Every structure is written in structure tokens, then in C-alpha cells.
């Protein structure tokens, strides 16, 4: 990861080597695909075709192996190549306002500019100092749970982390795919480990001949190694899903990260203070927020997550007296472009997550729909 970040900084400092940086970022993905393709050869050809004698057992192995193999590759593909969703234009701060912001002489003046622009925008989160979350690089008000990715050079909706193994940010646009990728990768490794164990034992007893036995030996230990590594990562993200948290919102106490990442690695900040469970609606509803309300599609890498990635229902104590996302004041108009921004009720989102598919909005202009997947060039 250190080398990955170093190469990324080199690309930013020297624009002439951007092509080299882009190529280097794909090395982890190529490595994963190489391991997977080799494992296919080792398992299908060396184990099933050349080693397993029982035809029923051979058919059983091949059938379930290919199911896991296809689901694993499908979910991995979706995680890697699902583009980021662009943050709606209404969060973008106009150049005139940015000029006023930079010319402001005090932090209080800058704070007032941000609050005036953010009036009516559906944001409830604050920085650790209690001010509007603002990205100076992207020049926009950060939607709730959005963070700026230094690798992708853009703000990412519901960002969890940037994963070099998929060369993509993990966030609202592909979190379900990432979870399925971890699940099927773990099952894939466990299946290979379990079904090749008896042949590893035969190898040690000297009952297997030929070069294929070395493929089986390495296949077993590689699968076992990845299974051990994936187990902790998968169950960690299961915990995050069930509690409606993210990696960036998980508190990091290591002193080396405190100054640099104090905003990103602390629990969500609301007007009422920090609350690590501020977005939690109960384990089942939290699960549905990521995987959707159709059980038939839970196990397929098809996008079914609830919501638009911009607004999220919050717990009652953070809803305020108006019970809305409008936490900036009574004005409901977006200051930046003169277009009315919708006011969305928290309890309406809660009803959606509880199983009602119809989402109600106010009488004002609807929030810009997020672009279709594949229409943005979010992959760096």
C-alpha cells in the first residue's frame, strides 16, 4: 500500500508519467487475475481431470467449482469496473462564491459563506469543528458520508475506502459488489482447500506421481493463505454493514493517523455531536440498505442498494425539530444556482428501508438522478 501511494504521488507531481502511474495501478488487479487463472488450471486440469478417479466425485467438484468461479469473477468485475457516481451539481460551489471564500479574512467569514450556500441542501454531517463539510479540491459541499479520495482525485459517495486490489474506490456505487466479491472469494478458497486436502495427504504419502502434484501442493497452500486473509476482512465488513458504518467512519486511535486523518477516521459528526451509530436503522434494515429489498437478488452482483447515495435516514436524535435533512436553517432554496432543492423527510427514507418501495419527496424540484452506471469515467 505504501508503494501504491508513493507511485500515485509521483503521478500527481509529474504529469508526464501519468501513463506509467495508471499502468502501475492495474498491477494488483492483474496479479489477482493471474492467480485465479492459474488456480483454474490447477484445479480443473490437474486435480479434476488428471487426479480424481471417481467420475461422480469429479462431476461434483467441477459443477460447484464453476458456480463459485463464475460468481467470484462476476462480482470482482463489477467491483473493479463500476464507475463512480457523480455528485449532483447542486452541491458544486460556483466560482464567484469560491472567490469570496478565499478572500474571506477569518474562518468565521468562511464558515458563514459555506452555511449560506448550504441552506436547503440535505446534509446533516459536520466536521470535527462543527462546520459544514467542504471539499476545496472538488469545490463542493460534501454530501453526508462522502469523502475525497486522493487516488481517484474526486469525492466519492458513501466512501468506504480505496482498494488497490480492485483499482477502484469502494463506496455507494459498488459496496454490494465488493461484499459479494469477498464472500465468493472466501467460499472459492474454502472449497478448493477442502476438496484438495485428501490429495495433498496422498502427495505426502508418495501416492501421486508427475509434475501435477506440485500444482496441487501450491494450490492448497495458496487457497488456504487467501482463505485465512479473507476471513477477517469479510467478517469485518459484515460487521460494518449490519451496523451501517464504513471503514472511514471507524475510529482509528493510532497516533500517527490522528493529525492527518482526524476528520475522515472519526465517527460521523452531527449537530448533536459524534455518533458512530447515527445512520443505523437496525441490523436487517442496514443490510437492506446495501443489498436491497429483493431477496432473490441479494446473492447476485446486480445493483440493488437502496437510496441515491446522497441522502440517508438518520436516527431520531439527529433529525432536529423539523424532522428533515434541512439542518442549515429555514431556507429551502439552493443558494448556488437559484433552483429549489427538495426537502426530504427522514421518516420517508425509513419507510422505504422498512419495505415500502415508493419514495416521497417534497413539492419542490427533484434531486438530480445519479447517472447510469458505466456512463462516467470514474476509474483512474
TrEMBL record:
The chain crosses the membrane at residues 26-52, 59-77, 177-201, 213-236. It is a multi-pass membrane protein. InterPro entries: Palmitoyltrfase_DHHC, PFA4/ZDH16/20/ERF2-like. Residues 133-249 form the Palmitoyltransferase DHHC domain. It catalyses: L-cysteinyl-[protein] + hexadecanoyl-CoA = S-hexadecanoyl-L-cysteinyl-[protein] + CoA. It holds the Pfam family DHHC. GO terms for cellular component: membrane. GO terms for molecular function: protein-cysteine S-palmitoyltransferase activity. The keyword Transmembrane helix applies. This is Palmitoyltransferase. It comes from Frieseomelitta varia.
Amino acid at each position: 500500500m505504501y508503494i501504491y501511494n508513493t507511485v500515485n504521488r509521483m503521478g500527481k507531481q509529474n504529469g508526464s508519467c501519468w501513463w506509467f502511474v495508471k499502468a502501475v495501478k492495474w498491477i494488483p488487479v492483474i496479479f489477482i487475475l493471474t492467480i485465479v487463472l492459474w488456480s483454474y488450471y490447477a484445479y480443473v486440469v490437474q486435480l479434476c481431470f488428471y487426479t480424481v478417479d471417481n467420475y461422480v466425485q469429479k462431476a461434483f467438484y467441477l459443477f460447484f467449482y464453476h458456480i463459485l468461479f463464475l460468481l467470484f469473477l462476476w462480482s470482482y468485475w463489477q467491483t473493479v469496473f463500476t464507475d463512480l457516481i457523480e455528485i449532483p451539481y447542486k452541491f458544486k460551489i460556483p466560482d464567484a462564491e469560491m472567490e469570496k471564500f478565499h478572500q474571506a479574512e477569518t474562518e468565521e467569514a468562511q464558515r458563514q459563506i459555506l452555511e449560506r450556500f448550504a441552506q436547503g441542501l440535505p446534509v446533516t454531517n459536520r466536521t470535527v469543528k462543527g462546520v459544514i463539510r467542504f471539499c476545496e479540491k472538488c469545490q463542493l459541499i460534501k454530501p453526508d458520508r462522502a469523502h475525497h479520495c486522493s487516488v481517484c482525485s474526486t469525492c466519492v459517495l458513501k466512501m468506504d475506502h480505496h482498494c488497490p486490489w480492485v483499482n477502484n474506490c469502494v463506496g455507494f456505487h459498488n459496496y454490494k459488489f465488493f461484499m459479494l466479491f469477498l464472500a465468493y472469494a472466501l467460499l472459492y478458497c474454502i472449497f478448493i482447500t477442502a476438496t484438495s486436502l485428501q490429495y495433498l495427504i496422498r502427495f505426502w504419502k508418495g501416492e501421486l506421481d508427475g509434475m501435477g502434484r506440485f500444482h496441487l501442493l501450491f494450490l492448497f497452500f495458496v487457497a488456504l493463505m487467501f482463505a485465512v486473509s479473507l476471513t477477517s476482512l469479510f467478517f469485518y465488513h459484515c460487521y460494518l454493514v449490519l451496523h451501517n458504518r464504513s471503514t472511514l467512519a471507524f475510529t482509528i486511535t493510532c497516533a500517527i493517523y490522528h493529525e492527518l486523518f482526524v476528520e475522515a477516521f472519526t465517527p460521523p459528526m452531527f449537530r448533536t455531536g459524534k455518533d458512530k451509530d447515527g445512520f443505523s436503522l437496525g441490523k436487517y434494515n442496514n443490510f437492506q440498505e446495501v443489498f436491497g429489498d429483493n431477496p432473490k437478488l441479494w446473492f447476485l452482483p446486480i445493483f440493488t442498494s437502496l437510496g441515491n447515495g446522497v441522502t440517508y435516514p438518520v436516527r431520531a436524535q439527529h433529525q432536529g425539530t423539523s424532522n428533515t435533512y434541512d439542518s442549515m436553517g429555514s431556507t429551502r432554496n439552493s443558494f448556488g444556482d437559484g433552483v429549489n432543492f427538495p426537502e426530504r423527510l427522514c421518516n420517508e427514507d425509513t419507510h422505504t428501508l422498512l419495505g415500502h418501495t415508493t419514495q416521497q419527496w417534497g413539492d419542490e424540484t427533484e434531486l438530480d438522478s445519479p447517472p447510469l452506471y458505466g456512463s462516467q469515467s470514474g476509474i483512474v
